[in-house]
Amino acid sequence: MPDPTTLPESPNAKTSRLCGILSVVFSCTCIGFPIAIIIGIIAILKNSKAKRDAFESPQEFRNPTNTGLTLGIIGLVVSIVIALPTTIIAGSMGVLASSIHNKKQENDKLIQELNNVQREFSENQIKLAAIEQQELDLKVKQQELEMLLLSKKASDEKTKLLSTQNETKKLQEQLAHQKEEARKVQDELNAKVDALSKLHN
């Protein structure tokens, strides 16, 4: 009967120890814990297989130590402990990055809409200024017509001048209506600009 202490270990025992050592080493790194989990499981399985080899062939292999099993369990536990918070942190950062990106898109959209409203506001102001200038021109023309009416004595010329004056008054009324509509649009744009400014702030 051979001495059990002189018998060699099963190759699975050596593999178990090697995998256990590598599992502990990889578990100490931030990116190696997936590998450490796999190698840790292999170390546990190889240690179990080495014990089975020693049980089935006691004359060929001695009973292995639990070094590979212990190291595999340590590497597996450490990897899981590191992997769990790392996964949670990575997920939280992903959610935060997505939220920041969506917020930036909303802000860009608001800024673009505010710029469009400001452009419409500027165009409306230019239109309003043009209408006011036309009103001034019409007032000057009306004054000229009134002076002509005073200076003209011929009835046909007076009738013609009165007709022109009536047309001028109608045009003034149209311009006044356009001016009122332009001012309403300007008031609406002012309200929209204020609302968008509050949303942007």
Give an overview in words.
There is one protein chain. The protein is mainly alpha-helical and 201 residues long. The protein folds into two domains: 4-97, no CATH class; 103-200. Helix content is 86%, strand content 0%. It is built from four helices and no strands. The protein has helices spanning 11-27, 33-56, 67-151, 155-200. α1 packs antiparallel against α2 (33-56), α2 runs antiparallel to α3 (67-151) and α3 packs antiparallel against α4 (155-200). It is rod-shaped. The model has no long low-confidence stretch (mean pLDDT 83).
List keywords for this structure.
201 residues
Tally of distinct domains: 2
Globally, the shape reads rod-shaped
Instruction: Determine Rg (CA atoms, Å).
Output: 46 Å
Task: Show unreliable segments.
Answer: none
Beta strand count: 0
User: Beta-strand percentage?
Assistant: under 5%
> How far from one another are the termini?
89 Å
* Residue-averaged pLDDT: 83
Given helix and strand content, the structural type is: mainly alpha
The largest sheet, given as strand count, sense and whether it forms a barrel, is: none
Residues in helix, %? over 70%
How do you describe this structure in short?
The protein has 201 residues and is an all-alpha fold.
Give a topology summary.
Blueprint: H1 11-27, H2 33-56, H3 67-151, H4 155-200
Helix pairs in contact: 1-2, 1-3, 2-3, 3-4
